[in-house]
Amino acid sequence: MKILVFGGTRFFGKKLVMRLLADGHDVTIATRGKTADDFGDSVRRVKIKREAREDLFCLAQEKWDVVYDNICFSPQDALYSIAAFRDKVGKYVYTSSLSVYRMRDRALVEADFDPFHYEIVTGSREDFDYGEGKRLAEAVFFQKANFPVVAVRFPIVLGEDDYTGRLEFHINHVQAGEEIGMPNEEAEMGFISSDEAADFLVWIGTKSDVVGPINAASNSVYRLSELMNLIEVATGKPAIVEVNTEDNDDSPFGVEKTYYLDNAKANEAGFEFRDLREWLPKLIDKKI
């Protein structure tokens, strides 16, 4: 297949490209050109600004079997893609997020956010918070695109190559004996590994005919108290968890209520997820 990947030089985007190449696909990566890659001559590279309409139209001078869009954060970005790739793409895979869901306190299913009837408001990334930008981008894709779209809703993605440092935040704070702010240690959260996220994107884009919104998360969840206990055991030090702390000590996982994805739709479609309780303890050990 001829495949275009927006953002394929780090984290799960890089792993996605590696898997696509291993499967024999013809891959082009479109990025800002700020992050080096080690793909050599195996990929074609195009330097773009994702928010620049003319850059997208240049890419759409040719047809693509699949487009992966890991760097769309606003309805304006989505509108530009729809205009540029009209009749030029077989399937458009949009990387969305758990953040589209406003509900809490239970497993969230795809129907809990309906992008097909969500009121569209236009604007750029700076005009919305992260969750609203993702909601509006989904709404634009599903209401206005004339090509098949799948929106992959990921939870927090973790891995050895995670540049955000969210898991390291907790490990470093425990090792340093510093407070960690968590409003509710009994809240449950789900995650997905960067390897599994890449595997899922390959599957949904090149091996599945599924379209529409779909949740993708590892099986099982952790209470935040259990997660902190894993770090305590791995570091040999107690975690100091408080409800109220300084802002710079607030946990990136600090949710007030349970917040995780139901992955039944993807399971029923044929994707087999790994178990969070198998891979997360190993990842914590590797990071210490």
TrEMBL record:
This is UDP-glucose 4-epimerase. GO terms for biological process: galactose metabolic process. Gene3D superfamilies: NAD(P)-binding Rossmann-like Domain. Its cofactor is NAD(+). It catalyses: UDP-alpha-D-glucose = UDP-alpha-D-galactose. SUPFAM superfamilies: NAD(P)-binding Rossmann-fold domains (SSF51735). Belongs to the NAD(P)-dependent epimerase/dehydratase family. The lineage of its organism: Bacteria, Bacillati, Bacillota, Bacilli, Bacillales. It comes from Listeria rocourtiae. Keywords: Carbohydrate metabolism, Galactose metabolism, Isomerase, NAD.
